[in-house]
């Protein structure tokens, strides 16, 4: 056992959870190498590390999704064998996973109580589970969600809140939260933290996985760092600085993550005129010049993603025109958009981006496959050479280009998608939450790519819910509120207070 772990344990006998020397192997990958973790009841224990460090893998073991090759789990004073999710839930371990997987055709209530429905014969007592759901949402102060609403009617942020409610409903002793704030607003983050504080008072332990430093120092009691599948250190949050924590995560010092190359804006690359769709957005107008990173800010439900999906041809508007380099284009589908020189990195990489059963290589080249066809033959050697170059350039952690992309960490999956769209050599790159669920090192890399892309004479449109990212990377920012365009701010006008005021519908 690691000496560091022994020191952590010295004089302590009140751990709710003890994970000891856990090893997990996947084909070609040692995901966890004798990792140990100790968590006390009634505390928030942050788990941090770069993408691919093993955080989610360790949590999936605790939740019964993966079974370790070695090691043991001691929970509530006894050795625990977790052979599936049911075992975890039965023993008092619940989890909110990073990648949401609700059944979208079912209601909120049906999703929360799936497998635990109250029955009358063979019929579900729908009204009773809706009543229980209403009570649960009220206890958690979650507003704006009806128990009888279908999940497909909810935004990603609202779905996240439903997942939180579902996890809490199991009355677990240990609650695992894997990137719980990746798709919710700052206001909703504050709400979540209030929920967490209440759970702590009930004696519930929370393992909190995040890449957001501010959240760790705001809510955590202790932090454990993993790197490359190995335990690095555990510290009380009061005895570590942000810079020291980053160094533990990446194994090196790291500079400013908002890497912005200054470039002089050129000619207008894309113009959007009079874009409207009833119930989603109204009269959106903007230009983006070559060399610019153009930010879109607003609260969840503001219509940012919906508007950009319309520009990209995936959400047909009621009215509106798009011009690329001064030429009006007709965009009836994403295929038309790509042919016109646009590319879009979507918010939900799992549902609308990745092909999980295909390997890294195929996911990178699939949007630009015709470039590797000569005389009706696919040039496999050229594809492999190109993909190896992309993996090196973006620091994608994978055992090989032939690894199925579903086995990569969330952040590395995101980098695969970035690589895919850069392969199409677009003039306009739309990026919806480009660094969602990505560690600080990878953020800096993606920001550098964005900046270099703009500096090469292209245009970037970036949708982000992270205000530091919006301010740090944008040349100009369009702020939206409930589908309406509130303001376009220049770089020297940007501040969190000003953006939030417009996002809340205030006239500044």
Largest sheet: 6 strands, mixed
CATH topology value of the largest domain: Rossmann fold
CATH architecture of the largest domain: 3-Layer(aba) Sandwich
Q: So what's the oligomer here?
A: single chain
How far apart the termini lie comes to 59 Å
Helix and strand composition category? alpha/beta
Please tell me the overall pLDDT: 86
Residue stretches low in confidence (pLDDT < 50, at least 5 long) are 1-12
Number-wise, the strands total 24
SS strand fraction: 25-35%
| Share of helical residues | 25-40%
Under CATH at level 1, the class of the largest domain stands as: Alpha Beta
Q: How many structural domains does the protein architecture include? A: 3
Strand arrangement, major sheet: 6-9-10-3-11-12
What spatial form do the alpha-carbon principal axes imply? globular
CATH homology superfamily name of the largest domain: P-loop containing nucleotide triphosphate hydrolases
Which short descriptors sum up this protein?
508 residues, alpha/beta, Rossmann fold, 3 domains, six-stranded mixed β-sheet, 24 strands
Description:
There is one protein chain. 33% of the residues lie in helices and 26% in strands. With 508 residues, the chain is an alpha/beta fold. The protein has three domains: 3-92 and 172-250, Rossmann fold; 103-171, no CATH class; 263-340 and 463-508, Rossmann fold (3-Layer(aba) Sandwich). The strands form six sheets. A six-stranded mixed β-sheet has the order 6-9-10-3-11-12, with helices on both faces. A six-stranded mixed β-sheet has the order 18-21-22-15-23-24, sandwiched between helices.
């Amino acid at each position: 056992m690691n000496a560091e772990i022994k020191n952590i344990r010295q004089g302590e006998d009140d751990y709710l959870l003890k994970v000891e020397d856990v090893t997990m192997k996947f084909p070609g990958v040692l995901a966890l190498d004798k990792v140990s973790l100790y968590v006390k009841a009634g505390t928030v224990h942050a788990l941090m590390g770069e993408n691919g460090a093993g955080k989610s893998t360790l949590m999936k073991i605790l939740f019964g999704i993966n079974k370790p090759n070695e090691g043991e789990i001691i929970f509530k004073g006894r050795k625990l064998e977790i052979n599936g999710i049911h075992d975890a839930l039965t023993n008092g371990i619940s989890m909110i996973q990073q990648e949401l997987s609700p059944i979208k055709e079912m209601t909120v209530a049906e999703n929360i109580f799936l497998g635990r429905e109250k029955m009358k014969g063979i019929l579900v007592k729908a009204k009773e589970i809706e009543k229980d759901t209403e009570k649960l949402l009220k206890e958690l102060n979650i507003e704006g969600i009806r128990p009888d609403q279908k999940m497909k009617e909810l935004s990603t942020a609202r779905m996240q809140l439903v997942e939180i409610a579902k996890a809490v409903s199991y009355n677990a002793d240990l609650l695992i939260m894997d990137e719980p704030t990746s798709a919710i607003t700052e206001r909703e983050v504050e709400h979540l933290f209030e929920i967490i504080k209440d759970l702590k008072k009930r004696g519930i332990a929370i393992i909190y996985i995040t890449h957001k430093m501010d959240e760790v120092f705001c809510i955590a009691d202790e932090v454990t760092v993993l790197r490359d599948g190995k335990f690095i250190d555990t510290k009380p949050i009061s005895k570590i600085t942000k810079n020291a924590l980053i160094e533990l995560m990446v194994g090196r010092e790291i500079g400013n993550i908002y890497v912005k190359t200054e470039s002089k804006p050129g000619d207008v690359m894309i113009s959007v005129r009079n874009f409207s769709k009833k119930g989603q957005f109204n009269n959106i107008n903007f230009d983006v010049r070559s060399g610019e990173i153009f930010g879109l800010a607003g609260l969840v439900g503001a219509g940012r993603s919906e508007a950009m999906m319309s520009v990209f041809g995936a959400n047909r508007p009621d009215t509106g025109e798009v011009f690329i380099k001064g030429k009006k284009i007709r965009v009836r589908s994403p295929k038309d958009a790509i042919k016109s020189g646009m590319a879009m990195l979507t918010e939900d990489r799992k549902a609308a981006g990745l092909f999980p059963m295909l390997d890294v290589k195929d996911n990178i080249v699939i949007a630009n496959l015709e470039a590797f066809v000569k005389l009706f033959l696919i040039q496999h050697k050229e594809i492999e050479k190109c993909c190896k170059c992309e993996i090196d350039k973006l620091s994608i952690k994978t055992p090989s280009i032939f690894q199925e992309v579903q086995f990569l960490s969330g952040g590395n999956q995101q980098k695969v998608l970035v690589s895919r769209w850069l392969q199409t050599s677009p003039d306009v790159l739309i990026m919806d939450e480009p660094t969602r669920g990505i560690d600080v090192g990878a953020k800096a890399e993606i920001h550098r790519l964005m900046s270099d892309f703009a500096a090469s004479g292209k245009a970037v449109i970036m949708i982000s819910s992270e205000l530091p990212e919006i301010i740090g990377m944008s040349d100009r920012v369009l702020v939206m509120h409930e589908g309406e365009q509130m303001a376009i701010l220049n770089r020297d006008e940007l501040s969190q207070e000003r953006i939030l005021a417009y996002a809340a519908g205030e006239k500044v």
